[in-house]
Amino acid sequence: MYGMFEVYHAPSRIFKIDFFFLTTDLDFDSLLAMSSSVNPVYLPTLDKLRAATTIDEEIPSNQPVEMEPLAMLVVQAALVRRTSWTEEVLNAPGHLQRGEPPAPADDEPRHHVRIDERLGGGACGACFERPGYRKCRICGGRGKIMNDKQFCSCRDGWVQCPTCGGTARSERVRLRYYSDTPAYLNEAYMPRHIGQIPSLFKLESFMENDLNLVRTPPEELRCHDLTGEVAGTAYRGGQRKIRPQFYGHDFGDTIEQALAGLNAAGAGANVMRYQVRAYAWPFLRLRWDDERDWVTYVDRMGQIRLFKGRNA
């Protein structure tokens, strides 16, 4: 699923989704919006609902007193979170490098060790008896084993000091350990005000199951930039920002919910790499005089669907 995503390297805990440039301080204020083209089959209308032969419910012939075009926002993301911690040691291995490891090129978990700071040193305290050497632990410093019948592999009972590497000097070094861990997010966000309508309490779970949102939605529902549009006003060249929509369907507060979810997924770590895709799934809330709330939408197969809420 995630192999289809664009890949971005982001040394930040905050993200932008599906935009095509990078900055060192990503503020994630531009998230997602409409795809370049949408198949009209996925846009629900009252006429489609009335013409549907697969709906058993009789649709009122009069116009609804309320008709609200909305969109559920589906976000699928794969992140690589980097955490780090330090430890002070004596004489770090010579092959260790300084500086932070490069950003990962894939989603595999990895661990790195780097020199964070050299803290100075002095004479090695582990080889004071013979600087640069320590007594062999196998033969006890005798140079022979097997009741002194066989020579030990050491040099006359001495081996190079493993602490200082034979230099007779020790150096305290602060090491930094890095851990790159993948994290995944696959969430559908419904406008919160829908959940406050008693008759539509179960709509979100109903649509999630019916649309099988564990799978990637159709590409026609893909969102690219939900920053909204800037339009002029009649007052001395003023400007105002128009809320982003998906072909007339309002996202409500789903963008803010998605931002919070993504930031929570990266909390407590630096996000070094992320792959994010977002999709809108449009639906239409309908209410007639009897205060029944109905919701209609189009499923993956292009079939019109109806969720009938109970009387409020």
Radius of gyration: 32 Å
Cα distance spanning the termini: 40 Å
In the predicted model, the low-confidence regions spanning at least 5 consecutive residues are 1-36, 230-234
Estimate the helix proportion, in percent.
Answer: under 10%
What summary fits the major beta sheet?
A: 8 strands, antiparallel
* Rounded mean pLDDT score: 82
SSE ordering:
EHEEEEEEEHHEEEEEHEEE
Number of helices: 4
- The coarse silhouette is rod-shaped
Describe this entry's structure for a reader.
- The protein is mainly β.
- The chain folds into two domains: 2-81 and 184-308, no CATH class; 83-179, no CATH class.
- 10% of the residues lie in helices and 38% in strands.
- It contains four helices and 16 strands.
- Strands 1, 2, 3, 8, 9, 14, 15 and 16 form an eight-stranded antiparallel β-sheet that branches.
- The longest helix has 12 residues, at 254-265.
- The two termini are 40 Å apart.
Give the SSE map:
Blueprint: E1 8-12, H1 46-51, E2 66-90, E3 110-123, E4 133-135, E5 144-145, E6 150-151, E7 158-160, E8 169-189, H2 192-195, H3 203-211, E9 222-223, E10 229-232, E11 239-242, E12 245-246, E13 249-250, H4 254-265, E14 270-287, E15 293-298, E16 304-308
Antiparallel strand pairs: 1-14, 2-8, 2-14, 3-8, 4-7, 5-6, 9-14, 10-11, 12-13, 14-15, 15-16
